[in-house]
């Protein structure tokens, strides 16, 4: 099933030469680039402009995730759900986990956006007991339940 992701580049995005592309055929994420320069001090979080506005198809969601090249420098994403109804600018909330300032130049690839299908945003069906959820081999095993 093919979906068409529509996007608009603002003047600041065009001036920075940014766009919204998957770098190679078969790549899962669209690269998000900074539309403006930014500096994040050690331990600082900041919204970084991309200048990109999207029309994500109904039944899909944009999920903003780290780029490995940015994470190596200390820049990690803290939030990132872009709903199909949102038409505002996509911004990336970056957090600098390193001990050094993180310098971002306009045009730098700062995150990636995965566009995936999701369940409809309706209320789930509540059941009367925990057993009604059914059994699995994992059960309620959580953090570290599969070993080291």
Topology summary:
Blueprint: E1 6-9, H1 11-16, E2 29-33, E3 38-40, E4 45-55, E5 60-65, H2 68-72, E6 75-77, E7 81-82, E8 89-96, E9 102-104, E10 109-117
Label this structure with key terms.
four-stranded antiparallel beta sheet; Deoxyuridine 5'-Triphosphate Nucleotidohydrolase, Chain A; 148 residues; globular; mainly beta; 10 strands; single chain
> Quick one: how many beta strands?
10
In what range is the share of β-strand residues?
35-45%
Looking at CATH, which topology would you report?
Deoxyuridine 5'-Triphosphate Nucleotidohydrolase, Chain A
Q: Please tally the helical runs, counting DSSP H or I stretches of 4 or more residues.
A: 2
Account of the protein in words:
The protein has 148 residues and is mainly beta. The protein has one domain (6-115): Deoxyuridine triphosphatase (dUTPase) (Deoxyuridine 5'-Triphosphate Nucleotidohydrolase, Chain A). It contains two helices and ten strands. The protein has helices at residues 11-16, 68-72; strands spanning 6-9, 29-33, 38-40, 45-55, 60-65, 75-77, 81-82, 89-96, 102-104, 109-117. A four-stranded antiparallel beta sheet has the order 1-4-8-6. Strands 2-10-5-7 form a four-stranded antiparallel beta sheet, with no helix packed on it. Strands 3-9 form a two-stranded antiparallel sheet. It is globular.
């Amino acid at each position: 099933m093919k979906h068409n992701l529509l996007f608009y580049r603002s003047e600041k995005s065009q001036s920075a030469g940014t766009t919204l592309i998957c770098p190679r055929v078969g790549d899962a994420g669209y690269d998000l680039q900074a539309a403006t320069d930014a500096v994040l001090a050690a331990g600082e979080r900041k919204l970084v402009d991309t200048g990109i506005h999207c029309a994500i198809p109904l039944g899909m969601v944009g999920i903003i995730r780290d780029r490995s090249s940015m994470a190596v420098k200390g820049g990690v994403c803290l939030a990132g759900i872009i709903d199909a109804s949102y038409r505002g600018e996509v911004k990336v909330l970056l957090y600098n986990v390193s001990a050094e300032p993180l310098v971002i130049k306009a045009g730098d690839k700062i995150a990636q956006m995965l566009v995936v299908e999701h369940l409809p945003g309706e209320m789930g069906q509540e059941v009367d007991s925990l057993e009604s959820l059914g059994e699995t081999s994992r059960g309620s095993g959580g953090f570290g339940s599969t070993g080291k």
